[in-house]
Specification:
It holds the Pfam family E_motif. The protein is an all-alpha fold. It has helices at about 20-25, 40-55, 60-70, 75-85, 90-100, 110-120, 125-140, 145-160, 165-170, 175-190, 195-205, 210-225, 230-240, 245-260, 265-270, 280-290, 295-305, 310-325, 330-340, 345-360, 365-370, 380-390, 395-405, 415-425, 430-440, 450-460, 465-475, 480-495, 495-510, 515-530, 530-540, 575-590, 610-625, 640-655; strands at about 550-555, 560-565, 600, 610, 630. Among the domains are: about 40-175, Serine Threonine Protein Phosphatase 5, Tetratricopeptide repeat; about 445-550, Serine Threonine Protein Phosphatase 5, Tetratricopeptide repeat (Alpha Horseshoe), CATH 1.25.40; about 555-655, no CATH class. It is elongated and about 105 Å long.
Length: about 675
């Protein structure tokens, strides 16, 4: 010890026990039924102090006190290893264990179980095997349930299979709840949900010791399978074994129902739950975020009215629901609530706000939030790039990508798809191809089907259909349905009939499962006048279970959102919209414009349906209300552009307002 260093432990300087305390301890009348008071020695007191230091996060003070101790027993060494583990300093914990062995100190079962947690934290399988050998040598493996469970955990986490963990599990003579939970967790966390459920079933059949944790993990395994029937069976087991009053278990079941797309069952369970906490409400709101975003708002309002305080997770889900519905006004109100509660610097919440404003057409506020963030992660950059791409700002997206790379953040597959999509919508073909070539060379990202699909779309939108077809032919794997869909869409838009027919035949050979693919093929054949092919496709469509989700466009007027679906019913302005539509058609004919039927949708009766985007433009024209927000598809075909130009001229002449020149109008991709 260096001279002048402050000592935390001194054998000579300490305060004596106060007289009143000493007399109280010595009072026989108070201690007649209690064992005599045996004060701890200085080593025991120092060990307790070390534990307190670690509990407070004072790691250096704990180490200093440990170094000053003249006598250290196995409890002290174990306290140091456990303390470092609790602070996630697993490397230091392993160093202490090695130092302990060099001092010749014999480890006990608690030491070995603690150091096995260290091996798990380090993902060091070799170290775990060394400790396993020491446990066999000391005789603790097989005789201590703590060591056996810790060994299982290490092997389940660090090994490539569950074989070693299963071998340790089978060697345990008397398994407890931790043993079963560790086995179920090991299978589930490595993605083998069915293996976890088999272990859970074995636990029930062997009448093993049950715990809420084992049920929660089994429910999570059911959720990952997406099979509602399995989840219902586990739910029944929860009730049969008396865990229906355990709130974490019931929250897991609630989440499982949503992941199994069983929203009705989830809602029924929610109303039947006798206890609810913030996690319960958050699970319900997050579950409806994608299934039925409007329900998320209703549940959020109910949550606040019942006195529950929303946290960052709550707001993240509700903001995402706003983005899905393009409810800009509601999103702005939520943003104000976030700011008032001091959540504005939360990273995940800021990312959700960037995405919401982008989807609602307000890319300026998206960039404002992004630029004001004190720290950004990969999701932040990706959300901003997706927003730029959806609004046709490809150059801004590429600048942002280059800035992200310069900041030291490594791009992943998602962000590269975002920048490729932005280049595609902005017509930056050469720039997008350059990023595609850099994928493996600089970013170490192997292009998959989705990335190739982005490049095919990039070339197809620019009219370079032949290059897109050559790219597909030279792919290192067999193209999937989505790639042929992108190519066929490009062929239809740019009237490349020969390649289109080839793409259509390839798609039919694959026997596609998506209804949208059959609709695209049907429209392609209809445009070609091949009504026999259309009839055959309609027959095939009746044989598939899923239906194509209709494209939707919407407009926000006076804080109310009106949505339009292809072939669907109009809003209350039905008659006015039809009247304006008839005038528009007459006006377009007077200008000598021939209607391009390929821009419209052929329904199953071979009639022409007006797309949803034309319908909401009619509403905008008849209402003449400002400001308004329009959420529209960003189409690249000439037919739609011509309709846009004629509509702009018509609205300007008829009402003195050109909706395309209005600053508050933003165009985005349609929900389809």
């Amino acid at each position: 010890m260096m001279t002048g260093t402050r000592k935390l432990l001194s054998p000579t300087h300490f305060r004596p026990i106060p007289t009143i305390v000493h007399n109280s301890l010595a009072d026989d009348t108070q201690l007649n039924s209690i064992a005599p008071f045996c004060p701890k020695d200085i080593s025991g007191l120092a060990t307790d102090l070390i534990k307190s230091y670690f509990d407070k996060g004072c790691i250096e003070e704990a180490r200093m006190l440990f170094d000053e101790m003249s006598h250290r027993d196995v409890v002290t060494w174990t306290a140091m290893i456990t303390g470092y583990n609790s602070c996630n300093h697993h490397g230091r914990a392993w160093s202490v264990f090695c130092e302990m062995l060099r001092y010749g100190m014999r480890s006990n079962e608690f030491t070995l179980s603690a150091v096995l947690k260290t091996c798990k934290g380090l993902s060091a399988l070799l170290c775990g095997k060394l400790v396993h050998g020491l446990a066999i040598k000391n005789g603790t493996q097989g005789s201590s349930i703590y060591v056996d469970n810790a060994l299982m955990d290490v092997y389940a986490t660090c090994c490539s299979s569950m074989d070693s963990a299963r071998m340790v599990f089978e060697s345990i003579l008397k398994k407890n709840a931790v043993s079963w939970t560790t086995l179920i967790t090991g299978y589930t966390h490595r993605g083998d949900a069915y293996g976890g459920l088999r272990a859970f079933r074995q636990m029930l059949l062997e009448e093993g010791e049950l715990s809420p944790f084992s049920f929660s993990i089994a429910v999570r395994a059911c959720a990952s399978t997406g099979l509602g029937n399995l989840g219902k069976q586990v739910h029944a087991a929860v009730i049969n074994h008396g865990f229906e009053s355990n709130l974490p278990v019931m929250n897991s079941i609630l989440d499982m129902y949503f992941k199994s797309c069983s929203a009705c069952e989830a809602k029924q369970l929610f109303f039947e739950m006798s206890q609810k906490d913030t996690i319960t409400w958050n699970t319900l709101i997050a579950g409806f975020e994608t299934l039925d975003p409007k329900q998320s708002f209703c549940i959020f309002s109910q949550m606040v009215s019942e006195g529950f305080s929303p946290n960052c997770f709550t707001f993240t889900s509700v903001v995402a629901a706003c983005g899905n519905l393009a409810f800009l006004y509601c999103g702005q109100q939520l943003h104000g609530g976030i700011f008032r509660r001091g959540f504005n610097n939360n990273l995940a919440l800021s990312n959700a706000l960037i995405d919401m404003y982008g989807k609602c057409g307000n890319i300026t506020d998206s960039h404002k939030i992004f630029s004001q963030m004190p720290c950004k992660n990969l999701v932040s950059w990706t959300s901003m790039m997706i927003g730029y791409g959806a609004h046709g700002h490809g150059k801004e997206a590429t600048k942002l990508f280059n800035e992200m790379v310069r900041s030291g953040i490594k791009p992943d597959r998602i962000v590269l798809m975002a920048v490729l999509s932005a280049c595609s919508h902005a017509g930056l073909v050469d720039e997008g191809l350059r990023y595609f070539r850099l994928l493996t060379r600089f970013y170490n990202v192997a292009p998959d089907q989705e990335i190739y699909g982005c490049v095919v779309d990039l070339l197809g939108r620019a009219g370079r259909v032949k290059e897109a077809y050559q790219l597909i032919e030279n792919m290192p794997f067999k193209p999937d349905e989505s790639i042929w869909v992108a190519l066929l869409g490009a062929c239809k838009a740019h009237k490349q009939r020969s390649i289109g027919k080839l793409a259509a035949s390839r798609m039919l050979e694959m026997k596609p499962n998506r209804a949208g693919t059959y609709v695209l093929l049907s429209n392609f054949f209809a445009a070609e006048g091949n009504w026999t092919g259309v009839a055959c496709l309609r027959k095939l469509m009746r044989g598939i279970k899923n239906k194509k989700e209709a494209g939707m466009s919407w407009i926000e007027l006076k804080n109310q959102v009106y949505s339009f679906v292809v072939g669907g019913e109009f809003v209350s302005s039905n008659e006015q919209i039809v009247e304006v539509l008839e005038v528009l058609i007459t006006h377009m004919k007077d200008f000598g414009y021939t209607l391009d039927l390929d821009c419209f949708v052929h329904d199953q009766e071979n009639e022409i349906c007006i797309p949803s985007d034309e319908l909401f433009c009619m509403l905008q024209a008849v209402t003449r209300v400002k400001p308004y927000i329009c959420t529209m598809p960003l189409r690249m075909d000439d037919g739609w552009n011509q309709i846009q130009l004629n509509l702009a001229d018509f609205t300007k002449r008829a009402y003195g307002t050109n909706y395309m020149e209005t600053p508050r109008v933003q165009r985005m991709q349609t929900v389809a």
